[in-house]
Amino acid sequence: MNWELYKVLAVLAAYVLGSIPTSVWFGKIFYNIDLRDHGSGNAGATNALRVFGNRAGAIILVLDALKGFAAVYLSRFFPEASFTSANNVVIYQLILGSMALLGHVFPLFAGFRGGKGIATLVGIVIALFPQAVLVCLVVFLIAFLPTRYVSLGSMSAAIAFPIVVIFVLQSELTAEIIFSIAVAIFVPLTHHKNIKRLLKGQENKLQFRKKGIADEIKNPIG
């Protein structure tokens, strides 16, 4: 069996999986609106919470995370013998996860206008670095709870991630170390507009509420 061909197809499948625009489709199906035209204009879980409310936002958050987790899980369909080493297994898993992340940020099914990829990235980290999740979550909450800035919490957790991988988990795999550092660079880069708003004191705080902006649009008062 030509495992190499199937591996290439799995990489493409990971991108397609990441390209499923959960929040965009949700808005069009249930509210007849494009999420990207409301709130922050982002197709991510945070804006979904703001526009659709707590319950829908939480569902979208979980589904977006599952995209990253499922993409990494595709590696389980290949026997260990099809890889030359354990390190190559990890590299392949990172490629799968990265393709899902790419699909979320540049979705094939939504005009290549997606979210920042934080929820999908969380799914990837859960699949590959489960021990790091708790530490990064604590860092996120320390930054988020006093401020209500999701962007600040996300960037703080991302910057802490390579520190956890290198010094706490003491990973010796070069691929894991490079990936963790890439995450610490990637997340702030995708949040450059948020950084500008934070510096100006204009960043939107996340307010938890049962109903979101979309409910007001769907059922306007008066």
Polypeptide structure, described:
- The chain is mainly α and 222 residues long.
- It has one domain (3-218).
- It is built from 11 helices and no strands.
- The chain is globular.
- The termini are far apart.
- The relative contact order is 0.14.
- The mean pLDDT is 92.
- Sheet with the most strands? none
Count of all domains: 1
Q: List the total number of helices.
A: 11
**Chain-averaged pLDDT:** 92
The proportion of residues forming helix, as a percent range, comes to 55-70%
How are the SSEs placed, and which strands pair?
Layout: H1 3-18, H2 22-30, H3 45-52, H4 54-73, H5 86-105, H6 118-128, H7 130-144, H8 150-168, H9 174-190, H10 192-200, H11 213-218
Helix pairs in contact: 1-4, 1-5, 3-4, 4-5, 4-6, 5-6, 6-7, 7-8, 8-9
Short description:
The chain is an all-alpha fold. It has helices at about 5-20, 20-30, 45-50, 55-75, 85-105, 120-130, 130-145, 150-170, 175-190, 190-200, 215-220. The chain has one domain (about 5-220).
